[in-house]
Amino acid sequence: MGELRSLQSWLRSDPDVRRSAAVDVRGSVPRPGEMGTTLDMLQLVTENGWSAASFVLALVAWRRTRPQPSRVEIRRGNSVIVLTEGSDEEIERVIRALDADRDEDEGQ
């Protein structure tokens, strides 16, 4: 959960992301005797002015500050987009996929 809180703080401090998205950490409270949850996630609720490029660039910048950048799954609707290395090609692929999903959502 610490990494998610760190990412949440990072995204909330980015003016472009903050302007067009609400960022919340979601997870359940562990039951007595449990060490933690099995699934914690960061939820982004975006507005019309949301920019996939701003979000992905902020995400990549945060990952580069981590001692061991981890694999990040981005889920949007039925799509799952994975960010592993943060290369320019991967960044472009993720932005295109998020923009395509948004265009699809707006067309419905």
Q: How many structural domains are formed by the residues?
A: 1
What is the terminal separation in angstroms? 35 Å
Structural class determined from secondary elements? alpha+beta
Strand order of the largest sheet: 1-2
Give the number of helices.
4
Q: For the report, how would you describe the main beta sheet?
A: 2 strands, antiparallel
Report the principal-axis shape.
globular
Number of strands: 4
CA radius of gyration: 15 Å
Strand composition percent = 15-25%
What order do the SSEs take from the amino end to the carboxyl end, as H and E? HHEEHEEH
Give the overall pLDDT as a whole number.
Answer: 81
Unreliable spans are none
Helix % is 40-55%
Pfam families: EACC1
Provide key terms for this protein.
alpha+beta; two-stranded antiparallel sheet; 4 helices; 47% helix; globular
Describe the structure.
This protein is α+β, with helices and mostly antiparallel strands and 108 residues long. It has one domain (2-107). It contains 4 helices and 4 strands; from the N terminus they run H-H-E-E-H-E-E-H. It has helices at 2-13, 15-20, 52-64, 88-107, and strands at residues 21-26, 41-46, 72-76, 79-83. The strands form 2 sheets. The chain has a two-stranded antiparallel ribbon. A hairpin with a 2-residue loop joins strand 3 and strand 4 (79-83). Helix 3 runs antiparallel to helix 4. It is globular and about 45 Å long. The N and C termini lie far apart (35 Å). The relative contact order is 0.15. InterPro entries: EACC1. Pfam families: EACC1.
